[in-house]
Amino acid sequence: MQLKMSLRQLDASSRFPQIMVSAYTGGAHCCSLTSIFDLRPDGQWAHLELGALDGDGEPDVLDIAGNGQEEILTVDQSFLYAFASHAGSEAPVVISRYHDGVLENVTRDPAYRNYLRDDLASRRRNWIHGGRFEPNGFLAYEVATKANLGEFAEGWRDMLAHAQSTKASGFGLSACDLKPAAEKQNGRGCSPQEKELLPFPQALAVFLQQNGYITPEQVASVTETRKPVSAEPQPVPSTSESAQSNNPPPSSAAAKPPETDQAVPPSGLVAKSGALFPVLAGLGLALYLVPLLIAYRRNTPNQHRVAMITILLGWTIIGWIAALVMALSQPARKR
To answer: If you write DSSP's letter for every residue of 299-329 in order, what string do you get?
Structure first.
């Protein structure tokens, strides 16, 4: 398991930077486990887990609005394998803000609309230049992003103009996939008819509602009047925005790909890694702070310098060794 550590000023109101720790478990399309450690004003350490993400690095951290506030960028991984292969899937951006120990999904904040539009334009160019490969994978992302921008109807019309049939694509969701996990029981609670793949637009509408991108009213506006394919679809909380500007999707950090016939990363690996990660992260953090703890324990004259070197350079081997040598080589002061 590979372990990475960095200092990030995620909370603009905090005097100290936050420590972001990521561990790569290995495996196909799997998995980086990331946690944030934050020194609170009362001197206690707070710990927040982002969960499992595809890839082998930390999530991107950017000051998108240019206001000095850094945001954490992830993607909604529930889109992977839903309507295309992993290579053909596009996952919508999820923008999160860390403040006072809480991670808030701020994807639909107007300050980030230009970023979402640029992301959509860039991915659309790549999709077109790539020969419109597996169109439903891109189109699902496009409609979700348009919904985040308050332009759901426009995105839906473009999807209908370019969508591929479920039969031709070989990917999609069934009524069984869209059932709550307790009801479908890994498929055992579904009839053969419920296991048949739904038409792409119908499945996409229910999928977007269940993941918080659109409202039931928006689903009704683009689908035929019929009995819903999903038993008791999850309601979308109301907001003060217009009907096409709903709550952003929940953070995708812990999202899992819907059940399909394609191979997906074993859930057991993620579960075991998730349970082990806090222990490893805690040990890594303790080791990282050893020089600082020694300096303060011995009450050395240069303890503030040791603290600075540990925080700024302790994540490198040379910096950590230098801080440790300073902490041990200076004489201890009497208390």
So the answer is: T-TTHHHHHHHHHHHTTSHHHHHHHHHHHHH
